[in-house]
Amino acid sequence: MYYDQEISSVFEELGTSEEGLSSEEAEKRLGEYGKNELKEKEKISIFRLFLSQFKSILIFILIIASIVSALLGETIDAIVILFTVFLAGVLGFVQEYRAEKAIELLKSLTSPEAVVIRNGTEKKISSTELVPGDIILLQTGDRIPVDARINKEFNLKVDESSLTGESVPVQKITDSLPADTPGTDRKNMVYAGTAVVYGRGRAVVTATGMKTSFGELAGLLGTIERSRTPLQESLDKFGRWIGGATLVIVAFVAVLGVLSGFPPLDMFLWGVALAVAAIPEALPAVVTVGLGLGVRRMVKRHALVRKLPSVETLGATDVICTDKTGTLTQNKMTVEKIYVNGQTLNVTGNGYNPEGKFLKGDSEVPEDDKHLRIFLLGAALCNDSNLYEEDGWKITGDPTEAALVVAAAKAGFEKSKLDRKYPRLGEIPFSSESKRMTTFNKLEDNPENFLNSELVTFSKGAPEVILASCTKIFQNGEMKALTPEQAQEISEQVKELANQALRVMALSFRPLEESFSPEKVSFREIPVEKIEEDMVFSGLIGMRDPPREEVKTAIKTCEDAGIKTVMITGDHKVTAAAIARELRILKENDLTLTGSELDSLDESEFENKVEKVSVYSRVYPIHKLRVIEALKKKGHVVAMTGDGVNDAPALKAADMGIAMGITGTDVSKEASSMILADDNFASIVSAVEEGRNIFKNIKNFITYGLTAHIGEVLIVLIAILGWQILPLLAVQILWINLITDGLPPMALSVEPPDRGLMKQKPRNVEEGLITRREIVAGLGLGGLIASQALIVLVWALNSGVPISKLQTMIFTLVVFSEMFNAFNWRSDRYSVFSLGLFTNKPLVYAVLTTVILQLIVVYIPFLQFAFRTVPLSLSELGSITALASTTLISMEIVKYLNARRVH
């Protein structure tokens, strides 16, 4: 369908035109056809999500136990057990729901965009809003989001391997095809899920969503899937380990209790309650929420993490390989120097304002200077950027190309008028391999009458590439043979401009003979080498892209954090080195390598040098892959930036692939783990800090939970073994588990970064979630909490305190002690007082809420009856609080001694 029709017929059938749909019509069709997205598996309903919280075998046992209790007349116990089970389910539901929402946010933030023509104007919209009849623009690197019929193309090639399995890109056409053309041969169509690898074009949307060819495969491409992270897997293993150990201990103590004369039902209920309290079944959900909240914070710092597992990688990153242009620099190119006719001209003006002069020394260059005019004409025509005025001067397209358009505008060449007057008949797009762009223009009304041809090829690109294709030079008003001496002089000029930290580009042109008539023009019939040979050198252009001020600080932060920064750029070696020195990336004994120098090294030679290299220049995407592999072999965790379609393999190979949000192609974004919304290196460093902080917070709230669980088990174990007394009842254990494992861990997950976080070395990627540090802390503080309870136990027994009051005091002590412990785990290094008590307000609110809930259970009469508590006097409450505070005080002393030992 549509492939066998002329494009005019397709437009008519779909009710559209070259001007695209109106906004009103597009909105109407969106309602009719629905969003352009593939249907996912049916989402679990809120009700089913809530019910899933009660699937645990221990929860089932508790419910059965409550039923048995009710049948035996223990109605209050049964009600309290069911109530706490219900509240635990609500808490688990809230955590799971927030985790799901975090994943959904991630998916919505990473939905791809498309450039569409609406109301005759180009605009960028979410690809989910595309409808049949829309006109979309396709460029190299775009991931195609719909099925569409091509109506314009400039050497458009599409990778359709995701549909056909064929790795060779398909050359696209605009002509209609016979009705019996098989699907794989319909070269005038593009399909959802495929990618543009070369050229550009326009197409009219014919199918969206599940109606596309890819939709029929019922696949899901380019979205974030809910997958378990390595961290969650580690937690599961830890949970199973501690759960097994706990069940053994609990079973032993329960049997011991029965043998000591406690009622079997009471010991059964107590054993299950203690098992529920000791097993950290809520941790995976809390971790997911913590990761999700961290991702949201990263978005505010211009870093969008596409996959949750990559958050864990950020904290271990110790090498960042970064592009230069736009990432380390401002990507606001301004032309400062032009070299034409053997002389260097200065260009005045700032930014994208097309006002400025061309000066030779102190004198202004005449407006009719042929050398400058043909140079700037080529700069404007061999260009895909545009300049327009809207609340100031703005650009569309690549900033480097835009700088050329602005320079041409200063000489009176308006890009939009030139494009209409001298239409482009074809082009060879820029690629990382060719390092040049070539256009083929028709110049009927020849602006420079020396060009004796209506057809002219213009090229721009890397100086060495352009110069190698030139056999002539435009000098003194004539096209002359390019001599070796002149070529050497041009090369020296390139070095001189590069030494001034200017990005240098060369331009050339070639009037074409009659054999290249418009009727015969087709880049598929004329080999590329025929188009781009025998060129005429027209000049050099030097542009400055100043470094971002914040990058210098960010690189220093990386250095302090044990992270090496490596610049990888296509720029000239001298330019790259000059900027790297300015940014303090390139230091005294560091090495620089060009792509060709890298090619000359074998694997062992390169591996011996790779850790000493700070700058790679004149490289191809394949070189990035080689750098990553060499660094990974040396045991480094590598982050790599990229923006082009050819960067995708390197982005996938890196431990942390980082795509550019502004200049990056859809393909590079899809291959990445993270997207920089502002293309700024400083945002990478912010993301690393946030990643480190997320991992730190997760370890801290896990240690908090481990401490609490160990403390509860030890209290009961020692009390039964030593005194044959149950210090806590089953309902009290369940309540402790409910209120201490709920809000405080969530609040700890939003703890801001420590001030010294980016002065620590990257964590060992092999380091497990639970290390000796966590076990020692858990046993130490858990033992301290148990000791506090035993002090109360001994005092109460010696003072003749009733068992109900003893249990109430220990019940309250454990809750208060765990709240003090929550403040311990805001940081394992810094005193809570140096951090500021109120710098984590959610934790303050969580602790206050938990304390109030505990006091309600102790002092409200009907809850006293339910939880077997008795009111405590103010002096008793004060003593318990003072004793519980030793949990915080002891940890403060440990932190102080550790700090003294470090210094």
TrEMBL record:
<dbReference type="InterPro" id="IPR018303">
    <property type="entry name" value="ATPase_P-typ_P_site"/>
</dbReference>
<dbReference type="Pfam" id="PF00122">
    <property type="entry name" value="E1-E2_ATPase"/>
</dbReference>
<feature type="transmembrane region" description="Helical">
    <location>
        <begin position="241"/>
        <end position="262"/>
    </location>
</feature>
<keyword id="KW-0067">ATP-binding</keyword>
<dbReference type="InterPro" id="IPR008250">
    <property type="entry name" value="ATPase_P-typ_transduc_dom_A_sf"/>
</dbReference>
<keyword id="KW-0812">Transmembrane</keyword>
<keyword id="KW-0472">Membrane</keyword>
<dbReference type="InterPro" id="IPR006068">
    <property type="entry name" value="ATPase_P-typ_cation-transptr_C"/>
</dbReference>
<dbReference type="InterPro" id="IPR004014">
    <property type="entry name" value="ATPase_P-typ_cation-transptr_N"/>
</dbReference>
<dbReference type="GO" id="GO:0016887">
    <property type="term" value="F:ATP hydrolysis activity"/>
</dbReference>
<feature type="transmembrane region" description="Helical">
    <location>
        <begin position="268"/>
        <end position="293"/>
    </location>
</feature>
<dbReference type="InterPro" id="IPR023299">
    <property type="entry name" value="ATPase_P-typ_cyto_dom_N"/>
</dbReference>
<dbReference type="Pfam" id="PF00690">
    <property type="entry name" value="Cation_ATPase_N"/>
</dbReference>
<dbReference type="InterPro" id="IPR001757">
    <property type="entry name" value="P_typ_ATPase"/>
</dbReference>
<dbReference type="GO" id="GO:0016020">
    <property type="term" value="C:membrane"/>
</dbReference>
<keyword id="KW-0547">Nucleotide-binding</keyword>
<dbReference type="GO" id="GO:0012505">
    <property type="term" value="C:endomembrane system"/>
</dbReference>
<feature type="transmembrane region" description="Helical">
    <location>
        <begin position="775"/>
        <end position="797"/>
    </location>
</feature>
<feature type="transmembrane region" description="Helical">
    <location>
        <begin position="701"/>
        <end position="723"/>
    </location>
</feature>
<dbReference type="Pfam" id="PF00689">
    <property type="entry name" value="Cation_ATPase_C"/>
</dbReference>
<protein>
    <submittedName>
        <fullName>Cation-transporting ATPase, E1-E2 family</fullName>
    </submittedName>
</protein>
<keyword id="KW-0597">Phosphoprotein</keyword>
<dbReference type="InterPro" id="IPR059000">
    <property type="entry name" value="ATPase_P-type_domA"/>
</dbReference>
<keyword id="KW-0460">Magnesium</keyword>
<dbReference type="InterPro" id="IPR036412">
    <property type="entry name" value="HAD-like_sf"/>
</dbReference>
<dbReference type="InterPro" id="IPR023214">
    <property type="entry name" value="HAD_sf"/>
</dbReference>
<dbReference type="Pfam" id="PF13246">
    <property type="entry name" value="Cation_ATPase"/>
</dbReference>
<feature type="transmembrane region" description="Helical">
    <location>
        <begin position="49"/>
        <end position="72"/>
    </location>
</feature>
<feature type="domain" description="Cation-transporting P-type ATPase N-terminal">
    <location>
        <begin position="1"/>
        <end position="74"/>
    </location>
</feature>
<keyword id="KW-1133">Transmembrane helix</keyword>
<dbReference type="GO" id="GO:0005524">
    <property type="term" value="F:ATP binding"/>
</dbReference>
<keyword id="KW-1278">Translocase</keyword>
<feature type="transmembrane region" description="Helical">
    <location>
        <begin position="803"/>
        <end position="823"/>
    </location>
</feature>
<feature type="transmembrane region" description="Helical">
    <location>
        <begin position="729"/>
        <end position="750"/>
    </location>
</feature>
<feature type="transmembrane region" description="Helical">
    <location>
        <begin position="877"/>
        <end position="897"/>
    </location>
</feature>
<feature type="transmembrane region" description="Helical">
    <location>
        <begin position="78"/>
        <end position="97"/>
    </location>
</feature>
<dbReference type="InterPro" id="IPR023298">
    <property type="entry name" value="ATPase_P-typ_TM_dom_sf"/>
</dbReference>
<feature type="transmembrane region" description="Helical">
    <location>
        <begin position="843"/>
        <end position="865"/>
    </location>
</feature>
<dbReference type="InterPro" id="IPR044492">
    <property type="entry name" value="P_typ_ATPase_HD_dom"/>
</dbReference>
